[in-house]
From TrEMBL:
The keyword Hydrolase applies. InterPro entries: Beta-lactam/transpept-like (IPR012338), Peptidase_S13 (IPR000667). This is D-alanyl-D-alanine carboxypeptidase/D-alanyl-D-alanine-endopeptidase. The keyword Secreted does not apply. Keywords: Hydrolase, Signal. Gene3D superfamilies: DD-peptidase/beta-lactamase superfamily (3.40.710.10). The lineage of its organism: Bacteria, Pseudomonadati, Bacteroidota, Saprospiria, Saprospirales. GO terms for biological process: peptidoglycan metabolic process; proteolysis. Belongs to the peptidase S13 family. Residues 1-18 form the signal peptide.
């Protein structure tokens, strides 16, 4: 009976104009849609709604409580990357050692030989133009932990956890695509990168998984159903080590004599750098596709840009103690760039405040182009389709027991709002949570 009353109440309010809704009526309606929503009752829910132009809060429920935000952390990462890397980023530091020898040190630059960024890979062109001996130096003190703080080690076989490194190659992933005779392509067969790894697949008919690898190796085995068109394109993480990186550089640039070294990084004043401008295509893939690898490498790249080497621990302290304090965001636990870590903690109000800052820093049109659009693309392609036009642009975040969405709402009246929906300890179906969030933001679209 109560459910029928809420439906009727909500239907009645959708015919009212934004000017007709008093603060008291707005609060009571959103309380019914969020605070007293039975679908949210077994977990922990937080919500914040603010005017995007003024930053003024409109409504909050547990908006000052901390939640694990999952991939909503990528909004923090994007903000930080824009602040630190908007002009130019160091793709590589190098020192000409005399003769035909060049010493290089990595920066975390993520696009070298990456299959999705071939036309944007400035560093590939620079290496192709070099000659002689190339020494890739990785001092022991600078080795980047392969996983971020709080990650699950046994995720190594899944396509969303990629190892981090100071000099990634091929996106630190195996990329495979298959063109069968039934596709109509003139060239058929298996295509992939890195070429040597892709060519070394082992068939194992007894294996139930389509593809798997042993932890710590780059030997992949494929099952009997592997060559089904629905499996492609396919990406899986590689086990990355300095010798592996050197081997891939030798294969990709056979004209270079690539060696591995451990020479300490000289002061930045003694080094030259290959400078690059990061394309919005990178940020779009990170936000729309929720690419964890790119998010992590952007943090390492920003740390290198600031300190001369990928000192992420000091960089996270700088971000939370300086950048976030300057914008009066309050205390945030920022533990990784991707949101894979459950150590991250953030408030819904902090995310709406961050979205307001992003709107001012990069521009609303650009921000909308980078975020997933409801019913259109990315992780929201099939979400928020309950209105006749696109009205939600937002970053999603999902872990076991975590469902989050934070972004922008364009109301029917033309008003723009920032929102953050954070759910933790979720036991029910994710689809049930999205249905109720769609109902809530649909009401906001109609009435504010």
């Amino acid at each position: 009976m109560r459910f029928l009353f809420l439906c009727s109440f909500s239907a009645f309010l959708t015919v009212a104009s934004a000017q007709d809704i008093s603060p008291r009526l707005l609060t009571s309606t959103l309380d019914n849609l969020i605070r007293w929503n039975s679908s949210f009752s077994e977990g922990h829910t937080g919500f914040s709604l603010a005017d995007l132009d003024t930053g003024e809060p409109i409504y909050g429920y547990n908006s000052e409580r901390y939640f694990v935000p999952a991939s909503n952390v990528k909004l923090l990462t994007y903000y930080v990357a824009q602040r630190e890397l908007s002009d130019a980023a160091p793709a590589l530091y190098y020192h000409d050692g005399g003769g035909d020898t060049t010493d290089i040190w990595g920066t975390g630059y993520p696009l070298l030989l990456h299959p999705s960024f071939y036309t944007y890979d400035t560093l590939r062109g620079w290496l192709a133009d070099r000659s002689g001996t190339l020494i890739y130096n990785l001092p022991a003190a600078e080795e980047v932990p392969r996983y971020g703080a709080g990650w699950s080690w046994d995720d190594y076989n899944y396509g969303y956890v990629y190892e981090r490194s100071s000099l990634p190659v091929y996106g630190n992933r195996l990329f495979l695509d298959y063109r069968g005779p039934d596709t109509g392509d003139t060239t058929t067969g298996l295509f992939g990168s890195p070429p040597g790894v892709a060519a070394g697949l082992i068939q194992n008919a007894a294996q139930p998984r389509a593809i798997s690898r042993r932890e710590g190796s780059n030997q992949f085995t494929v099952g009997y159903n592997f060559y089904h068109p629905g499996n492609f394109p396919l990406e899986r993480p590689l086990s990355v080590s300095p010798p592996f990186v050197v081997g891939q550089l030798r294969e990709a640039f056979p004209h270079l004599d690539v060696q591995l070294g451990t020479a300490p990084r000289p002061p930045r004043s003694e080094l030259r750098q290959v400078s690059v401008t990061l394309p919005d295509t990178l940020y779009r893939k990170m936000l729309q596709g929720s690419d964890n690898f790119l998010a992590e490498q952007l943090i390492l790249l920003a740390a290198t840009h600031r300190y001369g080497w990928p000192d992420e621990e000091t960089f996270f302290e700088y971000v939370t103690d300086t950048l976030f304090v300057a914008m009066q965001l309050g205390d945030v636990r920022f533990a990784d760039g991707s949101g894979l870590s459950r150590y991250n903690l953030v408030k819904p109000r902090q995310l709406t405040q961050l979205l307001t800052a992003l709107d001012r820093a990069v521009g609303r049109d650009r921000l909308r182009e980078l975020l997933p659009a409801g019913g259109v693309n990315g992780t929201l392609e099939r979400r928020f389709t309950n209105r006749p036009e696109t009205f939600v642009w937002a970053k999603t975040g999902t872990l076991s027991g975590v469902t989050c969405v934070s972004g922008l709402v364009r109301c029917r009246s033309g008003r723009w709002l920032a929102f953050s929906f954070l759910h933790n300890n979720v036991m029910g179906r994710t689809s049930d949570y999205y249905r109720e969030m769609e109902n809530t933001l649909g009401w906001v679209y109609d009435n504010l």
